[in-house]
């Protein structure tokens, strides 16, 4: 296979991956964030303590997470058709990707939100804040760096899952690597695909870490600032942590 | 301003019951600084959390500024609208400051105002005004992590005042601070108490805190209030544990046939040369074992531990003389007169 043959294939695959992962991440965050917060709030001794709800949500999350992605994709076919009107193609792949990622992200959210100091919740309660205020002004903003790291992890996991989306004809980089590289022995194309994936994942991880650490640094909760040699970043005026006496 | 009656809090976990508060009756007058002191585990924290109902008392009532908060609480663990409104009029400062690290100092102070639904302009005006009041106007845009402990607590205090409360609750506000910073924070609380007429209820395990800012104090032990009263009353109560701790004098008896007495001077009496008068009038040798002068609750007070020759029986007359001079006399190693038993003491 020559480069001129490979190029359009790869280009299309890149867009397909981006499209599927982008949408499913968005849905996973929108669905997983409230679910994760609910997992914390309904737990024993928390603001909306509800043991039954907590157990039910927990079990749904566990079962969804335990299904292998390919099985989930097949199991969701009826649902997918109901939503998108088809069971093949990029749009059809987004549904199982998003459904699979929601509980994954919800667990990450749960861990992040649990780490928020209970004293902050108490302080807002003492000001007369209600549960919604506590979620909006304390739990989410205070765990934001950690939530961003969780989102990064989710995106990377979704890129991995999206390779299997090829089985429903959705395309994408992973699909190219399997169909051309593995099944047709186009070793060269396979390595190029793998290299592109590696670069994409590194970039995403880097961007996520940078954003999370930037927020961390602002609030002074972690050590050194992220190292960036490629770009010159102006120090924010408030970042003079040395001043703390 | 704050009244609790029969306040009881029992924690249940895995079938075990722990009584944190055991019928606490507390009365804090308007405009005073009231200190509750006790060791950890005495129930101080539960007490202060029951005042704004962060903890639901198992029994008893809490009245703040004439409103029975326990009646507002309703059923279930969530705070209803009325209770939340009542809480917004009670400021609270915490040992570990509890500032949101994701917000700037100014935004932290604005938080209670956001909850009260004030407009952006009003919030920022009020926040800057309060930061000015606590001496942090220049740090408005800083993040809490960039501040020292004392500065963080100032922000905590500014935040607590945002809703124009009549009452401020202080939960060990100075316990995480060094002595110098503690003094400046206590001074700030005192100033606010005087300037704004703020009623302050503070809990602490440090006697110095009570000594430097409190008008009244209570001693807590095992969920009960063992002693309480204004600091002046307490110091005038022979055998008061709080008084002894507030104002300790040391010195040990040197022999069997000797009497050791603690003489406490208040106000006028402090200026009289009573000891030399005593020595001259009764021709006895007096040795001074220890003495101290201090300012407690803004009043000068002196205490001296002296040793007189002979047993108590031989010294009834000189001791009577000292009492006549308006001094408070505690004779060491003797039972206190029954009329002066400690308030609420239980055995």
From TrEMBL, chain A:
Gene Ontology biological-process annotations: D-methionine transmembrane transport
Membrane topology: Multi-pass membrane protein
CDD domains reported for this sequence: TM_PBP2
Subcellular localization: Cell membrane
Transmembrane segments: 20-41, 62-80, 92-109, 146-169, 189-212
Keyword line: Cell membrane, Membrane, Transmembrane, Transmembrane helix, Transport
Superkingdom, natural source: Bacteria
Sequence similarity: Belongs to the binding-protein-dependent transport system permease family. CysTW subfamily.
Pfam families linked to this entry: BPD_transp_1
PROSITE patterns: ABC_TM1
Location of the ABC transmembrane type-1 domain: 14-212
Protein name, as recorded: ABC transporter permease
InterPro entries per record: AA_ABC_Transporter_Permease, MetI-like, MetI-like_sf
GO cellular component, one term: plasma membrane
TrEMBL record, chain B:
Ranges of residues in domain ABC transporter: 2-247
Keyword Nucleotide-binding: yes
InterPro entries the record matches: AAA+_ATPase (IPR003593), ABC_transporter-like_ATP-bd (IPR003439), ABC_transporter-like_CS (IPR017871), ACT-like_dom_sf (IPR045865), MetN_ABC (IPR041701), MetN_ABC_transporter-like (IPR050086), NIL_domain (IPR018449), P-loop_NTPase (IPR027417)
Record keyword Nucleotide-binding present: yes
Pfam families: ABC_tran, NIL
Tree of life domain: Bacteria
A molecular-function term among this protein's GO annotations: ATP hydrolysis activity
Protein name: ATP-binding cassette domain-containing protein
Biological process according to GO: amino acid transport
GO CC annotations on file: plasma membrane
Function in brief: Part of the ABC transporter FtsEX involved in cellular division. Has ATPase activity.
Keywords: Amino-acid transport, ATP-binding, Cell membrane, Membrane, Nucleotide-binding, Translocase, Transport
Subunit structure: Homodimer. Forms a membrane-associated complex with FtsX.
Family note: Belongs to the ABC transporter superfamily.
């Amino acid at each position: 296979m020559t480069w001129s043959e490979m190029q359009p294939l790869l280009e299309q695959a890149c867009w397909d991956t981006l499209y599927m992962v982008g949408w499913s991440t968005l849905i996973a965050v929108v669905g997983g964030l409230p679910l994760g917060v609910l997992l914390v709030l309904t737990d024993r001794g928390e603001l909306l303590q509800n043991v039954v709800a907590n157990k039910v949500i927990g079990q749904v999350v566990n079962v969804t997470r335990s299904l292998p992605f390919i099985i989930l994709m097949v199991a969701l076919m009826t649902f997918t058709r109901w939503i998108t009107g088809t069971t093949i193609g990029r749009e059809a792949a987004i549904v199982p990707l998003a459904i699979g990622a929601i509980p994954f992200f919800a667990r990450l959210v749960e861990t992040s939100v649990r780490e928020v100091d209970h004293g902050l919740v108490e302080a807002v309660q003492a000001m007369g804040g209600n549960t919604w205020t506590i979620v909006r002004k304390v739990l989410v903003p205070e765990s934001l760096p950690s939530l961003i790291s969780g989102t990064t992890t989710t995106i990377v996991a979704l890129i991995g899952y999206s390779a299997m989306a090829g089985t429903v004809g959705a395309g994408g980089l992973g699909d190219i690597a399997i169909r051309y590289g593995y099944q047709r022995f186009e070793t060269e194309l396979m390595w190029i695909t793998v290299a592109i994936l590696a670069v994409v994942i590194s970039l995403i991880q880097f961007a996520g870490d940078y954003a999370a650490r930037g927020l961390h640094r602002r609030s002074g909760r972690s050590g050194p600032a992220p190292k960036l040699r490629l770009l010159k970043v102006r120090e924010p005026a408030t970042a003079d942590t040395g001043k703390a006496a | 301003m704050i009244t609790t009656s029969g306040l009881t809090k029992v924690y249940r976990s895995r079938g075990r019951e722990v009584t944190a508060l055991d019928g606490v009756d507390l009365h804090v007058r308007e405009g005073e600084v009231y200190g509750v002191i006790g060791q950890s585990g005495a129930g101080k924290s539960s007490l202060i959390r029951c005042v704004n109902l962060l903890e639901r008392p198992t029994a008893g009532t809490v009245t703040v500024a004439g409103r029975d908060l326990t009646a507002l609480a309703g059923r279930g663990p969530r705070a209803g609208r009325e209770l939340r409104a009542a809480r917004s009029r009670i400021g609270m400062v915490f040992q570990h400051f509890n500032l949101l690290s994701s917000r700037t100092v100014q935004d932290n102070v604005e938080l209670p105002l956001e909850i009260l639904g004030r407009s952006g302009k009003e919030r920022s005006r009020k926040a800057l005004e309060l930061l000015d009041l606590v001496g942090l106007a220049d740090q408005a845009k800083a993040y809490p992590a960039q501040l020292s402990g004392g500065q963080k607590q100032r922000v905590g205090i500014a935040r607590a005042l945002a809703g124009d409360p009549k009452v401020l609750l202080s939960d060990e506000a100075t316990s995480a601070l060094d002595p110098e910073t503690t003094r400046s924070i206590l001074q700030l609380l005192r100033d606010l108490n005087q300037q704004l007429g703020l009623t302050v209820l503070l809990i602490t395990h440090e006697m110095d805190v009570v000594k430097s800012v409190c008008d009244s104090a209570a001693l807590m032990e095992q969920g009960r209030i063992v002693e309480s009263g204004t600091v002046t009353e307490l110091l005038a109560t022979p055998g008061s544990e709080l008084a002894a701790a507030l104002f300790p004098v040391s010195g040990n008896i040197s022999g069997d046939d000797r009497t050791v007495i603690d003489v406490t001077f208040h106000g006028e009496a402090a200026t009289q040369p009573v000891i030399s008068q005593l020595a001259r009038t009764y021709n006895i040798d007096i040795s001074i074992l220890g003495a101290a002068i201090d300012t407690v609750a803004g009043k000068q007070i002196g205490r001296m531990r002296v040793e007189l020759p002979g047993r108590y029986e031989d010294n009834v007359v000189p001791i009577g003389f000292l009492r006549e001079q308006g001094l408070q006399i505690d004779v060491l190693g003797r039972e206190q007169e029954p009329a002066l038993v400690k308030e609420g003491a239980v055995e």
